[in-house]
From TrEMBL:
Name used for this protein in its record: Uncharacterized protein
Length: 200
């Protein structure tokens, strides 16, 4: 990370926050928003609870057959629904396994359809959810770096917030910090350098 990247990252902070708000309110159908999918993934919570139990206690005979086929043909078990759908092979060497894999794909597609309201729109929802998670990670990284900087150089953190995040010109930022122009530019250079070291 260099000075230009630091300045760009801090200057984009408000845009990141605005985009997060837009994405959180994006409707995916049935009154569900992307933020709800992100925060309240009930299927994953149920899966976590069921994971500790033997599968014969909660799966039907047919579902146990699907589970057996999945274990035989899947080499990894991704957590995202889109990744799970991609992980299921299109076909199998055995006719029964082939049918089981098709059924498994159909069940995953039904979950996607139930969440999005349409089969066609699920990829758009997944993309928006991924973008939301990426932006939230960027926001959290900036917040954490500024908090860390504030813990040992509070004036530097205040300068970065005022000048880059809030977009105030140097004279307003300097007035807020009660420093001269020369001190402002000296601190700005040091603040960017310190932020750069923390945010690596």
């Amino acid at each position: 990370m260099d000075e230009t990247t630091v300045i760009e990252q801090l200057s984009n902070y408000k845009r990141i926050i605005a985009r997060i708000k837009v994405l959180e309110n994006y409707s995916v159908g049935a009154g569900i928003t992307v933020s709800r999918l992100n925060q309240d993934d009930q299927l994953m919570e149920l899966h976590r609870r069921l994971r500790g139990m033997p599968s014969y206690m909660y799966l039907s005979k047919r579902e146990q057959e699907l589970e057996t086929a999945a274990h035989a043909y899947l080499d990894k078990y991704p957590s995202g629904i889109r990744a799970q759908l991609r992980a299921v092979p299109a076909g199998a060497s055995d006719a029964d396994d082939d049918k089981a894999l098709r059924d498994l794909r159909a069940k995953i597609e039904k979950v996607i359809e139930a969440r999005t309201g349409s089969k066609d729109g699920y990829e758009a929802v997944v993309e928006r959810l991924s973008e939301l998670q990426d932006l939230q990670a960027q926001r959290d990284q900036i917040d954490a770096a500024l908090e860390a900087l504030e813990s040992y150089e509070p004036d530097y953190a205040k300068l970065l917030r005022a000048h880059y995040i809030d977009g105030r010109p140097w004279n307003e930022s300097a007035r807020e910090l009660n420093v001269s122009r020369d001190v402002f530019y000296r601190w700005r250079k040091k603040a960017v350098s310190e932020y750069e070291k923390i945010a690596k």
